[in-house]
Amino acid sequence: MSDKGMMEKEEIFSKVLRAGRRTYFFDVRSTRADDYYLTITESKKFTNDDGSFYYKKHKIYLYKEDFDGFREILEEMTNFIINEKGEEVISERHQKDFKKEYDDESTDESSEKSSTAEKFTDVSFDDI
């Protein structure tokens, strides 16, 4: 198949959702039998130490026979999250003053762990 024919198949219908460092691509594609299916791609931008960028991508292929089940479970899961936690975003990334409940506990534990680690590193391997 020519490149032009391949490009026409790839561009049946597409939408893009940009969400911070993530971008979601919703693409309608065609099977060999000329039926349609959906691909959902999550692309997340990362920065290398040298300042250059790279992207990690994850893709889901969703076929028509799975649409109803997928839609039902997606709706159930999103409704559960909204009902349990509301629509307000709660995360460190979105709230600069957000403090994890376990921050205080982790500082106590980390001092215990460091003293334990110091004891462990005091082992002399010359004794073996």
TrEMBL record:
Keyword DNA-binding: yes
Transmembrane segments: none
Keyword list, A-Z: DNA-binding
Compositionally biased region (Basic and acidic residues): 93-102, 110-121
Record-linked InterPro entries: PUR-bd_fam
Region (Disordered): 93-128
Alphabetized Pfam families for the sequence: DUF3276
Entry keyword annotation includes NAD: no
Record GO terms (molecular function): purine-rich negative regulatory element binding; RNA polymerase II transcription regulatory region sequence-specific DNA binding
Family in the record: Belongs to the PUR DNA-binding protein family.
Descriptive protein name: Uncharacterized protein DUF3276
Organism, scientific name: Christiangramia gaetbulicola
